Amino acid sequence: MKRTRHILLVGAAITSLVLGGCAGTGGGNATAQNAPNAKVTLDFWSNHPANSRTTEQEIIAAFEKQNPNIKIKLTDAGKDYEEVAQKLNAALSGGQVPDIVVASDVTWHNFALNGNFAPLDDLMKKADGKTDDYVKSLYDEYTIDGKHFAVPYARSTPLFYYNKDLWAKASLPERGPQTWQEWNTDFAPKLAAIGVTPLSIPDGANYMDWYFQGMIWSMGGAMSKGLNITIDDPKGITAGKFLQDQFKNKYFKAAKDATVPFTTGQAAAMLQSTGSLLGVEKDGKIKVGTAFLPSPEGVSGVCTGGAGLAIPAKSKNQAAAAKFLAFLTNTENTVKFSQATGYMPVRTSAVESDVVKSYIKEHPNFQTALDQLPLTKPQDAARAYVNGGGAKIGAALDKIAQGADVASTFKALKEDLQKQVDTQIKPKLKK
Questions:
Q1: Which of 132, 167, 177, 431 is the residue whose CA sits 20 to 30 A from 239?
Q2: What's the confidence (pLDDT) of residue 27?
Q3: What is the H or E stretch that residue 116 is in?
Q4: How far apart are CA 269 and CA 196, in angstroms?
Q5: In this structure, are strands 252-255 and 158-163 parallel, antiparallel, or unpaired?
C-alpha cells in the first residue's frame, strides 16, 4: 500500500516567504477564462479522499442541475494522492490533462512551481468564488509569489486519539498528555503496565513523517528552516532519539493502518488524522477521546495536511472549472463533505454555521480538531516542498525505529534533501 492519508493543513504559507518570486508560474488559457458558461464537459480527477466518491457525485449532480451547460466527468485517478500525482505527471508529458485535479499538501507545490497549475485568483474572482471566506491560513497555504494555485478541499490536522476505558483502567485523567515528556514519564508507563501497547502510529510508508513534524517542533527543532535542511541539528537529533526510545521501550508500535490496533483495543492511543474520526466513531467498538498533539504551552506541535483542488494550466476550460471549484467548496458543500468524511470545513462561514454547531453536539470529538486549528502552522519545506521529501523522511524514521543511529541517519537524509533543494528548487527562484 502506498502512502495514503486523510489529513488537513493550516497556517501562514511558508511558500510565500521563502519561495516568493518563483519562476515558471504563469497564467492560464485566456480564451478559456472568458467562457464560464460555454457548453463543456469538465474532467475532475480525484482519489475520493476518505471514500467520498458518493458525496462527490451528489455535489456534481447538484452543480449540473444549476449549470446545465457544464457536465462533470468524475475520474478515478488513483487510490491515493501519490497515484493522482503520478497520473498527472504522465498526462503532462503528452496525455489528456484534467480540468480539475486533487493535489495533496506534498504534491501541489512542485506542479505549481513548474508552471503546471493555473493561478486561481482572477479565475475565482470571476466565478464569484468568495475566496475571502476560506479559512485564511488554509487558502494561503497554496501561495507562491502572491498568487494562489489551489483552493482547500480535504483538509485535516493530526489528532491524539485515546481509548477512554483503557485510560480509566490505567488511572489516567480523561485528557491527553500535555507534552511528550508527560507522555513518556507518566502516561505511557501506566498504559504499558496494564498490558496494552500505549500508542499506535502509522509507519514510515504511511506518513509517520507527518506526525513526526509536530514532534520535532515540540522539542524546539525543525526539519528545515526556509530552504536550509536542519533535521540533523542537535534538537532534531533529540527528537529522533526520543522517537527511537518510544519504540525501544515498546511505548510506540508502527502499523500500516494505525486505526486497527486502536479500534481493537490492542493500543490505548493513536496518532491519526482528523479525517479518521468519523470512521473510528462509526466503528463503535471503543469509547474514543481526542486531544491536541502533545506540545509545551506556547509552542506549536501540530501541522496541517490533506489536499486542495487545482486547475492545470493546460486545461482549455479554466473559467468553467473555477465555477465548479467555487461550488464544490461553497459553504453548503464543504459542510456536506466534512460531515460525510471527517475532514475540516474549509470556509469560515461553514465553521460558524448552525449546522456545524449542531453536528459538534452529536460529535464532540470534532470540536478538538476545530479548537486545534488556530494553533497549527505550515509544514517545513523539507517535507512539503521537496519532491518526495516526505517519503524519504518516512523511510529514515523507519530505520530509526528499527534501531539505526539517529545522527548518521539524519545526516545522510539532510544531504539528500539539501541536494534536491539546491538543484530542483533554488534554480527556479527569480534572480
A1: 167
A2: 43
A3: none
A4: 10
A5: unpaired
Residue 308's contacts (CB-CB under 8 Å, 6 or more residues apart) are: 102, 103, 105, 108, 141, 142, 150, 151, 152, 153, 155
3-state secondary structure of 53: helix
In the numeric block, which cell numbers belong to residue 249? 521501550
Give the residue carrying C-alpha cell 479554466: 318
- SS3 state of residue 338: helix
380/95 Cα distance (integer angstroms): 33
Q: What is the pLDDT of residue 5?
A: 38
State in Å, rounded, how far the first CA of the chain is from the last one: 41
Cell of 195: 498490558
Dist CA 412 CA 329 (whole Å): 41
Cα separation, 388 vs 188, in Å, equals 33
- Collapsed DSSP state (helix, strand, coil) of residue 240: helix
C-beta of residue 7 within 8 angstroms of C-beta of residue 273: yes
Task: Phi first, then psi: give them for residue 224, nearest 5 degrees.
Answer: -160, 155
Residue 119, beta-bridge partner list: none
347 alpha-carbon distance from chain centroid? 16
**pLDDT for the residue 375:** 86
Q: Which residues of the chain have pLDDT under 70?
A: 1-37, 429-431
Neighbour count for residue 256 (Cβ, 10 Å): 11
Burial class (CB in 10 A: 0-12, 13-18, 19+), 171: exposed
Cα dist from 251 to 21, 187, 221, 248, 326, whole Å: 45, 10, 22, 8, 45
What CA–CA distance (Å, rounded) separates 107 from 98? 16
Answer yes or no: are the C-beta atoms of 262 and 269 closer than 8 Å: yes
Give tens-digit pLDDT for 73-116: 999 999 999 999 999 999 999 889 999 999 999 999 999 999 99
Output helix, strand, coil percentages for the chain, rounded to the nearest 5: 50, 15, 35
Identity of the amino acid at 168? A
Across the beta sheet with 197-202, what order do the strands follow? 252-255, 197-202, 267-273, 158-163, 288-291
Those residues with Cβ within 8 angstroms of residue 125's Cβ, 6 or more apart along the chain or in another chain: 131
